Amino acid sequence: MASPGSGFWSFGSEDGSGDSENPGTARAWCQVAQKFTGGIGNKLCALLYGDAEKPAESGGSQPPRAAARKAACTCDQKPCSCSKVDVNYAFLHATDLLPACDGERPTLAFLQDVMNILLQYVVKSFDRSTKVIDFHYPNELLQEYNWELADQPQNLEEILMHCQTTLKYAIKTGHPRYFNQLSTGLDMVGLAADWLTSTANTNMFTYEIAPVFVLLEYVTLKKMREIIGWPGGSGDGIFSPGGAISNMYAMMIARFKMFPEVKEKGMAAVPRLIAFTSEHSHFSLKKGAAALGIGTDSVILIKCDERGKMIPSDLERRILEAKQKGFVPFLVSATAGTTVYGAFDPLLAVADICKKYKIWMHVDAAWGGGLLMSRKHKWKLSGVERANSVTWNPHKMMGVPLQCSALLVREEGLMQNCNQMHASYLFQQDKHYDLSYDTGDKALQCGRHVDVFKLWLMWRAKGTTGFEAHVDKCLELAEYLYNIIKNREGYEMVFDGKPQHTNVCFWYIPPSLRTLEDNEERMSRLSKVAPVIKARMMEYGTTMVSYQPLGDKVNFFRMVISNPAATHQDIDFLIEEIERLGQDL
């Protein structure tokens, strides 16, 4: 595949400076819009600013929004300048919007009002005085609103109300005190990119219908492979609908590499295949095995040490056991950043074993891949460059809006050979451009969402150094939390030592349990503490943090930090809130 080249498309060392502070930005925006939108930008500026050339001056007699809330007229002037009444959404329906005749003005007014709802939500998401969640039980929400679908259309006033209601009960995942999942935060550039992607509304399978997005995927995946350590960024890859699918891609490709006949003849044509992964790995490995007909019994779980890292000696022992039974080991999936402990498997040792037994090495770095952006922390993935494939989810540690997951493959062409079906109605061989940019045939999907643009645009806005600062800050916050609670009364760490990722795992011990002996009764009572505190958090709406049991360990809190909006004060608040909500248990 020919390189798209440098300049606009490439990731350089730009300092990120721009004209965002320039008072003439709005004027420049109008000029750009007029250039690229065939007149629509001129009309939009006129509607929003009252003048096609410049934004409305402060202190004007008419608010900038007023002109956009006018009803459609019947005059022939384009754009018209006649007097109109305000838009009344109670009498308008979706059929009155574009592409309806005279639908331009109500469309712009409607979308501006939708945008106002979204912007208000965005601002509230960062306001610590607002709730993280306005929790209602499912039956309450079902009874409070009519969510059912009807035969007859509702008017646009009701549609706008539905938008407001939906966001009212949505979880503010960008809130600085939302710590519940690995994917948190709300990046403004990423959000803007997502809006643009939805506006473009195209598919990623061919260059002819997604030229810019296809080139950006090529550039971005190549950059990610360079960061992994593959020479010159060589190899292949694709953005998929999440880490679970990326992991399944890796399993498919590993199977095809060893037994290419499986593509046509199925599992009946190959021997019993065995995959290996740690007992702390993500459940998607077993799901993938089930979906591919390999079977969950063919996924062998390798023992971990007390910190949650795969034990290489146990991996080699289980490989030899499988071979002695006549089975064929075909995949080892190491984890870089486990879901609960945030552990990093010893990739160099795993790579040595995979090389010794000629087994495909996959690294599930969905959670930990972001640390490759940090000079301070990337050592935790030493050996990832020896992997045959890597899963990396920028929508986790890098804060890219959901969804954004990449599967990177070291051997170029293998993914294409594994998945292509030569559909002639999409992938014609006599097109007038370089067919290597028609990437759809290497994907499982036909319809594939544009997931690359938000990552690319954020990378351009932040630079690699910006992502590095993001990662370093989040890990520093995790260390701050660990240092506070490791010797604090009422807390017990699930494992000893500073966490490797932002995962901080601990029990809160209420006063009533602190003097009890460490026996079955105490464990039984302790197992109920985290669920009750979590429920109270949600009912008050103050914060959210996850909990779970693991192995023989009863429910404990798993704190994760990936939101750069969080501060030391938010960590302090979390500790105080846990103690406030759990002291009476």
TrEMBL record:
<dbReference type="GO" id="GO:0000139">
    <property type="term" value="C:Golgi membrane"/>
</dbReference>
<protein>
    <recommendedName>
        <fullName>Glutamate decarboxylase 2</fullName>
        <ecNumber>4.1.1.15</ecNumber>
    </recommendedName>
</protein>
<comment type="function">
    <text>Catalyzes the production of GABA.</text>
</comment>
<keyword id="KW-1003">Cell membrane</keyword>
<keyword id="KW-0210">Decarboxylase</keyword>
<comment type="similarity">
    <text>Belongs to the group II decarboxylase family.</text>
</comment>
<dbReference type="GO" id="GO:0031410">
    <property type="term" value="C:cytoplasmic vesicle"/>
</dbReference>
<dbReference type="GO" id="GO:0042734">
    <property type="term" value="C:presynaptic membrane"/>
</dbReference>
<dbReference type="InterPro" id="IPR015424">
    <property type="entry name" value="PyrdxlP-dep_Trfase"/>
</dbReference>
<keyword id="KW-0770">Synapse</keyword>
<feature type="compositionally biased region" description="Low complexity">
    <location>
        <begin position="1"/>
        <end position="14"/>
    </location>
</feature>
<dbReference type="GO" id="GO:0004351">
    <property type="term" value="F:glutamate decarboxylase activity"/>
</dbReference>
<keyword id="KW-0530">Neurotransmitter biosynthesis</keyword>
<dbReference type="InterPro" id="IPR002129">
    <property type="entry name" value="PyrdxlP-dep_de-COase"/>
</dbReference>
<dbReference type="InterPro" id="IPR015421">
    <property type="entry name" value="PyrdxlP-dep_Trfase_major"/>
</dbReference>
<feature type="region of interest" description="Disordered">
    <location>
        <begin position="1"/>
        <end position="24"/>
    </location>
</feature>
<keyword id="KW-0449">Lipoprotein</keyword>
<feature type="modified residue" description="N6-(pyridoxal phosphate)lysine">
    <location>
        <position position="396"/>
    </location>
</feature>
<keyword id="KW-0966">Cell projection</keyword>
<keyword id="KW-0472">Membrane</keyword>
<dbReference type="GO" id="GO:0030424">
    <property type="term" value="C:axon"/>
</dbReference>
<keyword id="KW-0597">Phosphoprotein</keyword>
<keyword id="KW-0564">Palmitate</keyword>
<keyword id="KW-0663">Pyridoxal phosphate</keyword>
<dbReference type="GO" id="GO:0009449">
    <property type="term" value="P:gamma-aminobutyric acid biosynthetic process"/>
</dbReference>
<dbReference type="GO" id="GO:0006540">
    <property type="term" value="P:gamma-aminobutyrate shunt"/>
</dbReference>
<dbReference type="GO" id="GO:0030170">
    <property type="term" value="F:pyridoxal phosphate binding"/>
</dbReference>
<dbReference type="GO" id="GO:0005829">
    <property type="term" value="C:cytosol"/>
</dbReference>
<keyword id="KW-0968">Cytoplasmic vesicle</keyword>
<dbReference type="GO" id="GO:0005737">
    <property type="term" value="C:cytoplasm"/>
</dbReference>
<dbReference type="InterPro" id="IPR021115">
    <property type="entry name" value="Pyridoxal-P_BS"/>
</dbReference>
<comment type="subunit">
    <text>Homodimer.</text>
</comment>
<dbReference type="Pfam" id="PF00282">
    <property type="entry name" value="Pyridoxal_deC"/>
</dbReference>
<keyword id="KW-0333">Golgi apparatus</keyword>
<keyword id="KW-0963">Cytoplasm</keyword>
<keyword id="KW-0456">Lyase</keyword>
